[in-house]
Amino acid sequence: TWVKLSEVTVKGAQYNSPECYPHPECLQGTQVDLLKHINGFLDDPEKNQLIWLHGMAGIGKSAVVFTVAERMRGLKVIEEMNVEKRLAGTFFFLCKKIECHTAGYFFAMLVYQLATNFPSIQKDVNRVICDDPALLDPSTPLCDQMGAFFLKPLWWLQIRLHRCPPLLFVVDALDECTSGT
């Protein structure tokens, strides 16, 4: 089942994918105040962990999101862990593959990355897929995919990581998402 999941993931949608090249990174000395605010917000476990950047096209939102993801990629949930990272998953809807614009691949991609970064839940994810293989079909309702591929795995991790800094999922260009497969 892990192989089946990997086959429906859109690796080109990861923030640092070669298919998203050139990567839109903030130049040194730009967006300093905004990045400082976002990083402080993400580092505070008492804060609600949803940040939504909005603004006109071309003002650098993707560069900010990429820069934040790049920083978080190197941070561990617990320093003693060498695999489990705070950057739990990314999906950039603007990349060149058609699947990168399709909502049906979104949750499968996020759970694939989450289980790769947190191998302790891979068996649980495999069990969910064995119980309902249709979840891998991109035309499966998003609410079903979200519950099985996103909420359940996060619940399994919540108990184990409850005193750790929050995990981070980075999504860019959600407005480019389509519902079709």
Total helical segments: 6
Global morphology? globular
Overall average pLDDT: 81
Strand content: 5-15%
- List the helices and strands in order: HHHEHHHE
N/C terminus separation: 21 Å
Largest β-sheet summary: 2 strands, parallel
Radius of gyration: 16 Å
What strand order characterises the main sheet? 1-2
Find the structural class using helix and strand composition.
mainly alpha
- Low-pLDDT runs of 5+ residues are none
Helix content estimate: 40-55%
How many β strands by DSSP?
Answer: 2
Topology summary:
Layout: H1 2-8, H2 32-43, H3 61-73, E1 87-92, H4 106-117, H5 122-131, H6 142-160, E2 168-172
Parallel strand pairs: 1-2
Helix pairs in contact: 4-6
Summarize the model shown.
40% of the residues lie in helices and 6% in strands. With 181 residues, it is mainly alpha-helical. It comes from Suillus subaureus.
Description:
This protein is 40% helix and 6% strand. It contains six helices and two strands; from the N terminus they run αααβαααβ. The mean pLDDT is 81. The chain is mainly alpha-helical and 181 residues long. The protein has helices at residues 2-8, 32-43, 61-73, 106-117, 122-131, 142-160; strands at residues 87-92, 168-172. The chain is globular, with a radius of gyration of 16 Å. The longest helix has 19 residues, at 142-160. α4 runs parallel beside α6 (142-160).
